[in-house]
Design a protein that fits this description.
Layout (H helix, E strand, L loop, with lengths): L2 H33 L4 E4 L2 E6 L11 H5 L4 E7 L5 E9 L4 H4 L2 E5 L4 E3 L5 E2 L2 E9 L4 E10 L14 E6 L1
Antiparallel strand pairs: 1-2, 2-3, 3-9, 4-8, 4-10, 5-6, 5-9, 7-8
Length: 167
């Protein structure tokens, strides 16, 4: 083989390797963007990140056992220039009061309440109100379970929850 043909072959191999590398980078960027879809939001200058991978089917638990579950991590950053107040709102995918009456909620392990006893509006149930200085971040741990009075006829394991903030 001549040096010219070896050089051409080497260039073709390098171009193919470069195309594969570009393809892998594009796919990785797409996969990362897809995995964060719906998890990162910007609302009124607050950036929220929701990690709800650990929320599975709700179980019937005592309050102590419910507080020992992992829960949902909801991180809120105030990107405004001044201190602002926000409310975390949780909206269940169902509206059946017979089922919702048996759901317990805890935020940051500070309190345990029945979901339906909390203040509600058209966006859902307000589970906490907090004030955050400009540039600061607050991490909330939200835990959900069924109370011990729940029976298997009431328990609905297909409930999904949507978390939002009102600023």
């Amino acid at each position: 083989m001549t040096a010219n043909s070896i050089l051409k072959r080497q260039i073709i191999i390098e171009i193919m390797a470069l195309m594969v590398l570009v393809g892998v980078i594009c796919y990785t960027a797409y996969a990362i963007d897809k995995s964060n879809e719906g998890k990162v939001k910007n609302t009124a200058g607050f950036v929220t990140v929701l990690d709800d991978k650990k929320i599975g089917k709700l179980e019937i638990l005592s309050d102590g056992a419910g507080l020992n579950t992992t829960g949902v991590t909801y991180t809120i950053t105030n990107n405004n220039t001044e201190k602002r107040q926000y409310k975390i709102v949780i909206k269940p995918s169902i509206t059946d009061e017979k089922i919702l009456d048996h759901i317990k909620v805890s935020v940051n392990d500070l309190f345990v309440a029945n979901l339906t006893d909390l203040e509600s509006n058209d966006k859902g149930y307000i589970i906490t109100t907090h004030e955050l200085k400009a540039g600061y971040t607050k991490i909330h741990i939200i835990k959900l379970w069924y109370d011990l009075d729940s029976d298997s006829n009431i328990v609905n394991n297909d409930i999904k929850f949507e978390f939002n903030i009102i600023a």
